[in-house]
Write a structure and sequence with these properties.
heterodimer, A: mainly beta, 7-stranded mixed beta sheet, 4-stranded antiparallel beta sheet, 15% helix, B: mainly alpha, 3-stranded antiparallel beta sheet, two-stranded parallel ribbon
Chain lengths: 444, 367
């Protein structure tokens, strides 16, 4: 009986609503839905071999498409569809695209290109990017011209443009990395400065192995490198002009100076200086040669890194009794501690975007590379191993490269990269052991 | 003095009484309130009242209600419950409903005692992060969006089915697993410490549900299955049927567009799930991941989007460039997953011909 009564009431209630429902349906508005969950996966992209416009360009056509695919796939954000899966072939750069063929293999983006050799012998690379499912180009086509020796750089430029148009942020493929190349047994390593493309190609050595070198750091324009040299038997900061391969020492006194880093405008350098048993952070104005002490505590304070706007400096200090991260004004003064987790924090580096700080963390006998907000919040550990240290940011602030050393007598350091989300951890190929990477800005 | 005050008060009372009387008369005789009801009620009174006896035997009455509205919405295509139903879902003259095969002992062993809240072990890392985890496909199985069985010619059959390779969806996990979380010694030691104390699982799952054992086991409290209950709730059915029946004759200004009863929550959810499967934000910039975009799309009657109609009508949280990236990712999702047509009820086409989809990536930034 109760059920009947309840049923009748509900029916009556439903009927009472009918006028409103009918009126609403007579003028239906758009159906509205909200999507809050999607998927995170590499975007399938098709990069068929570029069209060779002449026989001389033939050998570059395939290579350039291959490097573009490697770049994009290596970022972890794209998945290059293998050529065997292609249904249609691109036979001419200007022929219309058969989008249905690319949709059928689920390619969401398509890169077509051509390579030719100009009358002056320079290589000319053209490309177009298409959104397959929208059947529309993504931006206009681009063309690069350079010497034939620079074909890899042109491929990186194409990949940067594709990456930028799809992700909305700048690329990082046309960039270089300076690092310390290591050879010999673990207790007698010979160390040299070396420079290479971001993907480990075109390695060149900048110094010989007559003196130990440490911690190279690029200048903001990528033309110079600061590093710590033991050429005098004592660690001293040295500046190296990459193009001229000429170096000069910036440490003119008898104290140890190390851990240097350029200011964002390149006009100053922050570094650590040991005076007696105490290590503090100093700032050197490269124009005037004037030196200013930024910290003055009995603790060891080192590894300074500017914020991208040049107003602040993050550094590591054990002033609390344990190695932690601090932020202070670029002119010195009161420092604010930003790391409060368990373990020890070190080698902080401010992201080029300004939103994150990468660091090394040691806890429970393991090393991690992690990131946190500039106020110390939202700490996330990205890696974990026997020894990870020395992070450096890609020019777009999306990828971090660092040193990973394996344990044991035969252990050796190597370079690794990881996406800022913690995905896509991969080893960077180097000839032999390598450590202390520093990522350049995007090349012009 | 008092007299004057009393006189003033009685005047006020008279005025008030006259006013109330006028209002009551207006409402009864010429008011629009009741007239409106009279106008509308006939459209809704076609619902038959259900007697108590018929109500109690709800399974028998249900087909009658459905037959009044031909091609009523079929049982919603909920993919989850793989309950072994008879092939004919709702036959017209079905024999007295057989006892529902409820004692299928699937869920019972899974939800016994409340265990201490140990953090679930992190899922294995995968390239794809999606709301629904997918186990890795078997080797040599082609990855595709849909699962399909392998078909091989058996040589003797007359079946004309084309041979096809087995396919399976790509492996997916529900969150980003970094190397640090994968090898976190803290969580590992926690798992080890919690495991022997209070594992909620039985030591061995019975190979086959024996009727005797089921009878011997203490009968579980008759908890209704929350997924099945709404379908068999007579009250809800009666209300829904009444609403559907009364709403049927309504048509929009364009007589070619059927409106039908209101879109159900399941139909909306089905569309939402279909779109989110293709909404890939893995290649978006950080700024684009902070941008919520709303797209408007016109749909064909077969459930496919009109690609040229997709446009962004709102963007919140990022720059124009970020909004453009977010828009393109959302547009790709609509086009890709709508290529074969979304599963939408044709009889309600007038309600979903124009759709506004809001893509909010807030929950997907870092997981």
């Amino acid at each position: 009986m109760t059920k009947t009564l309840l049923s009748a009431l509900l029916v009556a209630f439903g009927l009472a609503l009918m006028p409103q429902a009918s009126e609403a349906q007579a003028r239906p508005g758009p159906l509205r839905i909200e999507i809050t969950e999607g998927v995170i996966e590499p975007l399938p992209i098709a990069i068929p071999p570029f069209i060779a416009e002449s026989a001389a360009a033939q050998r570059y056509a395939n290579n350039i498409a291959t490097v573009v695919a490697q770049d994009l796939e290596g970022s972890g954000l794209f998945r290059a569809i293998p050529e065997q899966a292609f249904i249609s072939r691109v036979t001419s750069f200007d022929s219309p695209v058969q989008f249905s063929d690319w949709k059928a293999i689920n390619a969401q983006a398509l890169v077509t290109g051509s390579v030719g050799v100009a009358a002056d012998g320079r290589l000319v690379v053209k490309f177009r990017l298409f959104d397959v499912f929208s059947e529309a180009p993504l931006g206009s086509g681009l063309q690069f011209a350079a010497s034939q020796d620079s074909w890899r750089r042109m491929a990186h430029k194409v990949a940067d443009a594709v990456y930028s148009r799809i992700t909305g942020e700048s690329g990082y493929f046309d960039s270089r990395v300076v690092f310390v190349s290591e050879q010999g047994p673990k207790n007698d390593r010979r160390k040299r400065l070396a420079i290479m493309d971001y993907d480990g190609q075109n390695v060149q050595f900048l110094t010989d192995d007559s003196a130990i070198v440490l911690a190279p750091r690029f200048s903001p324009d990528g033309g110079k490198v600061l590093y710590t040299s033991y050429a005098t038997g004592m660690p001293q900061i040295t500046e190296l002009d990459i193009n001229a391969v000429r170096s000069r020492s910036l440490g003119s006194n008898a104290n140890m100076s190390f851990s240097p880093r350029f200011s964002p405008d390149g006009s100053a350098v922050v570094y650590s200086l040991t005076n007696g048993a105490n290590t503090d952070i100093y700032r050197l104005d490269l124009g005037s040669g004037r030196q200013a002490q930024l910290t003055n505590t009995p603790a060891i304070e080192t590894a300074p890194s500017f914020s991208p706007d040049g107003r602040q400096v993050v550094f590591e200090s054990d002033r609390s009794g344990n190695q932690q991260l601090y932020v202070m004004s670029a002119n010195g003064g009161e420092a604010r501690r930003i790391s409060f987790g368990q373990g020890r924090y070190g080698t902080p580096v401010w992201s080029p975007r300004g939103d994150l700080i990468a660091f090394t963390k040691q806890n429970n006998g393991r090393f991690h590379i992690g990131v946190m907000r500039t106020d110390g919040s939202e700490e996330r550990l990205l890696t974990s191993s026997f020894l990870d240290e020395g992070p450096t940011w890609a020019p777009n602030g999306r990828v971090i490269m660092f040193t990973r050393e394996t344990s044991g007598a035969s252990g050796a350091p190597a370079l690794y990269s990881v996406d800022v989300s913690g995905r896509n951890l991969r080893r960077v190929p180097t000839p032999g052991a390598a450590s202390d990477p520093s990522w350049s800005p995007l090349l012009e | 003095m008092l007299r004057q005050a009393y006189a003033r008060m009685s005047i006020g009372m008279r005025v008030s009484g006259a006013g109330h009387l006028a209002i009551i008369l207006w409402v009864i005789i010429g008011g629009s309130l009741f007239r409106s009801d009279r106008d509308v009620l006939p459209a809704a009174t076609s619902v038959t009242l259900v007697s108590e006896a018929a109500f109690e035997g709800r399974d028998a009455t249900r087909p009658d209600v459905i037959t009044e509205a031909p091609e009523a919405p079929q049982p919603l295509p909920t993919p989850e419950p793989p309950v072994p139903e008879p092939s004919a879902a709702r036959p017209e003259e079905s024999p007295p409903a057989p006892p529902v095969p409820e004692p299928v002992p699937q869920p019972e062993p899974e939800a016994p005692v409340s265990a201490p809240e140990a953090p679930p072990p992190p899922p294995p890392p995968a390239d794809r992060v999606a709301p629904v985890p997918v186990p890795p496909p078997v080797e040599d199985v082609q990855v595709a969006e849909e699962t399909q069985e392998e078909v091989t010619p058996d040589g003797a059959g007359t079946d004309a089915a084309e041979p096809q390779e087995a396919t399976a969806p790509e492996e997916a996990t529900t969150r980003i697993i970094t190397e640090a979380t994968e090898t976190d010694p803290d969580s590992a030691s926690q798992d080890v410490a919690l495991a022997p104390d209070a594992t909620p699982r039985p030591r061995a799952r019975p190979s086959r549900p024996e009727p005797v054992e089921a009878a011997a086991a203490p009968p579980p409290p008759p908890e209704p299955n929350p997924e099945v209950e709404p379908e068999t709730d007579p009250i809800a059915d009666a209300v829904a049927d009444a609403v559907a029946e009364a709403a049927e004759p309504v048509r929009s200004a364009d007589p070619t567009l059927p409106i039908g009863p209101p879109m159900t929550a399941s139909e909306r959810e089905g569309l939402r799930v279909a779109v989110q499967q293709c909404w890939n934000i893995g290649s978006l910039s950080s700024e684009a991941l902070r941008t919520t975009v709303t797209l408007k799309v016109e749909m064909e009657q077969d459930g496919r989007p009109v690609v040229s109609s997709i446009r962004m009508i709102d963007a919140v949280g990022g720059s124009d460039a970020a909004a453009q990236q977010a828009f393109e990712a959302a547009r790709r999702a609509i086009i890709r997953c709508g290529a074969r047509g979304f599963d939408l009820p044709v009889e309600k086409y007038g309600q979903w011909r124009d759709i506004e989809m809001t893509f909010n990536p807030e929950r997907m930034r870092i997981r």
